[in-house]
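ok so heres the complex, three chains, lmk if somethin looks off
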Amino acid sequence: MSVVFGLLLFSCFYEINVFTINADNYELVIYTYESLLADPGYDFVEGFANHSGIAKEDIHLVLLEDANSIVTQAALEKNNPVADVLIGLDNVLIHKAKEEGILEPYNSPELVNVSSDLISNLDPMKHILPYDYGIIALWYDNSRINSTSNPELDTLKLQDIIDENLDEILIVEDPTLSSPGLGFLLWTIAVYGDPSVNFDGLLKDDWRNWWKSASKNLRIAPSWGAAFDIYYTEEENRPMMVSYGTSPAYDVCHPLWGVGSGSDPPSTAIVSHENGTENAWLQIEGLGLVKNAPNQANAQSFIDWFLSAELQDNIPTNNWMYPANVHANISSCFMDSAINPADVNILNDLITPTMLEENLDMWKNDWETEIASFSSIFLIILTLSFSAITYIFLRKKRE
Amino acid sequence: MTKLELKEISMKYERKYILEDLILEVNHGELLVLLGESGCGKTSLLKIIAGIIKPEKGDILMDGENITHLAPQKRKIGYVPQAQVLFPHMKIRENISFGLEAHRFDKQEIEDKIKWVAELTQIEDLLDRYPSEISGGQKQRVALGRAMAIEPRLLLLDEPLSSIDASGRESLALTIRRIQKETETTTLYVTHNQEEARLICDRVALMYDGKIQQIGKVIEIDKNPLNLIIAKIMGSVNIWSIEFIEKKDKHSIITTPIGSFQLPYEIIKHKPTGIKIPAEVIELSFDIGSTDHRSDTSNFILNGKIKSIVEKDEETHRIIIDLSETVSEYIKVDCKKELIKKELKPNQEVILHIDPLEVILI
Amino acid sequence: MSRTVRKETNIEEIANKFIIILAIIALGSFLLSLFYVPLIQILRFAFSSESKFTFAIFSSTITDTLNLKFIGFTFAQALLSTVICLFIGLPAGFFFAKYEFKGKKLVLNLLTIPFVLPPIVVLLGFIVSYGEGGWINSIWKGMTGTDNVLISIFGTFEGIVLAHIFYNLSVIIRMTIPAWQSLDLEQVEVSRTLGASEWKIFWKIIFPQIVNYLISSALLVFIYTFNSFAIVLYLGEVRFQTLEVRIFKMMKASLNFSGGASLAFLQLILNTIIIILYLLFERKTRQMAIGKERGLQKEKISFSRYNWKKNLSIIGLILFMLIIGVFTFAPILAVIIVSFTPFSSEVSPFFGYMQLFSFEYSPLLNNSPLRLLLNTLLFAFAATLITLTLSLMIVFVLKNRYQSLKKYQRSISESFISYMIILPMATSSITLALGLFLLFNNTSLYLNAVWFFIIMAHVLISVPFATRSIMAAYNRIDVELLNVASTLGASRLRVFRKIELPLILRGIIVGGIFSFAISLGEFGATNFLVRGAYGTLSIGISKLLLTQTLQLPATMASILIIVTIICFLAIQKLGDVELKV
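and the predicted structre for the whole thing:
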């Protein structure tokens, strides 16, 4: 009883306490998303502890659900920062992060090893520094669908997805929640254009039309992981999903279940072939230094280390992306099975950062509107009228 | 032994006064019955005395000490409510010891008191049962015992016999009376049943309209009810309201639902509201044809039919006579058995003779 | 001696007053700091910009076409689910009220199980049974030999409505049984002799008698479906969002705090209206139920050789019940079966149960499944303990006759507190979590000890339930008992300890089990608040919900099912379940 009382009394006073305690005594606090370097798993906290001499216990790793939540959390703590480093923001999310003013530019010495293209594509101001990249691609399971059964796959255009009924077997991620999902949305926008903002894209059409036609049959998953699970379950009969150009490498080079580079790959990644080019959206992931970070020096040395070859060597086969550091080791297995962004036409160039910044919210909102235009609208009318009848009936009974 | 005084107690319920400037005194060691119709505020009054409800106005004095603002816990008043409320989750023994424990008696004292109370209320063999396992009459004894255990300065009983079956009533009433006498506990006993009052009380207080209207010994009130309502509450038979009074020199004529009476005297004092014809003063004659020798022009004569005959006691029959030939009223007549010579049958026609001097004005 | 007696009662009385004051302070500070201030924080986000009052955010949020669409959807799906539930539940209620058969209670309890299960478990069962890869569609595919599915539950209106019916059907069945039982059939007989048609008898005689029960049970289902979260979050994809899901997505995906807060405020208003309506009608049914013993004559199921019409209707009813039974119970069974079905040829049937002890899934779950189970149980125990303490305090303060009985009317504090707790009742779990989040998210307590807020959210959700359960037990106590006890010299505190507490013990236990079960499966608020390693089984299941390895989530769900069923049966043993808010 007294314990409970204590707890309750505490509950009314803790507010005062809470604002005075701060961030405990960690020497480094990192926010990232749950699956960073997680499969099969490289313990980068331990790696940095060994590298820097900071005790592992003094490094606090906070795993958030996804990249979105990292920005949310940091934005909430803006006035009283807890985290020092944010890992996992991409070239789209950067705008949100900049808007919130949560990051501080940092010119890491390791950036000399990173292609300037990547840096300028992600953030020329260096709020966020690129650590890996890869293109968004459509990824399918060869055992269930292949260019023999569907010859259009070899020269696939986005329009083919609708025309050849591939939308019935495709899983996309919700762009409001997931970064590959958003990458795919921007892919469609870059290809079709948006007349409402006088953006021609490749085809001078309206991206909304594509989604309007496709939305009925698409399966929309909340995250890449969820999409992968649906993809993997054969009964669901959806052997194609929005993923990365590096995804086939996962099936080939994974130390546990990879089939090895010699044999036929179990899966294939493809991009779209409009106007005679292979087009894809490039996703660049970066990490950044938090503005007014409590442990700025440690944070900077962590960022340096994260961009150094020591860590970057682990990117391909643990995070399944291309490492930003040009000197990082990439296995030939990975090289052979993944699509190299250098080989495709990067659509990101079409959409300027300003355009993206100005229109992103509108695009997401319009996407949701396209998707939410449910055909069952008549049911609503039906229900409403039914309830009206019941109501009238009840009134009549009363009289 | 405690003397209880209530001074100008008033209480409202939903904007209506149910008690209004009520004054009452209960003497040391007395059992006073508070008699009134249901809903007249008797129960509220008890709750006010017990301290469960606070009066809007007025004072409660116990032996001169003003206890109006004292918490019920400190009043040491034994309260036995109408519903037989025993603590359902406690054995009878625990029910009785509840108050004792609250008053922090030590273990031995509690044991002794339980024993004493159990003997007093004759529930020795029920002590280890639960309330759900005993009868209504037994429950009421336990409730009484529980109240008596704390040796209250005042005992409040709210219709203690009302939910008991007829067979147990009298014995419980006698038990209450005995305990009250033995312990000399000042007791206020609330009931709507005048028979209970007659059975048990020292004095009776009649209550209606939020006030005590008349207080005194039963016999006195029977003889001289203040008004028709009190007469009714007291359960008097053969009472009728007076509809009209006509005064003539030396006598008066009063009109009632059963007819008009000529009284050989003048009504001087207060305005009477009703008449009472005591059942034993009515004489009957059964032979319709023959004129009775006692017949006297001054007597008031009514015709009726016998409705039913019941034995009132060993010597008397009570005959209920239907006056329907004149008015739709019944009149009750007590008749000595020895005077009834012939066999009486229902529907037999009779003539009633009433001496106007015996008619009591209320 | 009397001197010492008086002194000690005085001390007890002071203690009593002290405890009441303490209880009021504790209650007040709890509600204030964890409910009302967070609520004000929501209002601040919804109605102020740069610390100035503005109506613009709220009005632009609720007039946004997308939001309007989702508001419309929220109403439409709730209405449709409720109406269909009524149509199925009413005859089923009739069946249970009318017919006596062996194992009737068991059948009724089995039907109720989906309702008492955590939403995420129900969702899993629903996906396992009716999903694209679920067994119903598999059978269908096998029968038709095509790849077309019979039912598609993801991203379809029907899927959501079906899931809601499955979840809430038992509410209608259970709540209409007393309606049929309290029916006055004499009137029916009379009108039948007067030559009224059966249809007319139903509308003129029967319907008016059961209408209050129908409305109150319908309102209850409406409340549940209106505030549905987990089911719509996963089945609706993005196409369909209830207000609850919309608020969640606005907060978590768009970081649109003001918009989320505005919608939360709108939802709170709507909920308050529905709850008040519900309480009104529920009181009416309670009054109707009093003193009505007769009603439908109970009958054994029997067939007569001559009356084929009657036989046919009985067979029809039984078939109908069988279908309902399969519809509602099969998914639960399916979850347990799946937990023992190896997802690949390499693993044993006990894979899921063995996985509980491994860390293989830790990267995905942020913790081992065993820790999730432990968290779940610890949160539930803590939440139950705190909930019961608070509910008892509420009851004690509300029913503190020491002060209030002297006057005949309800004291001001009593009315005040009873209004204070209606609001938490009408607050959806997402809104509760939202308030806590908006107020505390940048405190270090939130960052490091989010379990505290998860437990508190569970407490806030279950306090109204527990309080109602205890209050119901309390209201059965005869006031005179307490009066007598106080005239016998027992202080207020002693009366509470010795008389009231033992008499409401059953209510307390039922309330405790209720809050335990609620906390056990709570998803919406937990999911909103959870960080890092403090997940519960519900969160774990939700993360694995769409995976190919359904065996592990099914195992976790089976554990929840078993614990919940034990709780439910315990409540059943202690007395009738009140499936009410």
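quick notes: Residues 2-47 of chain C form the longest helix (46 residues). thats all i got rn
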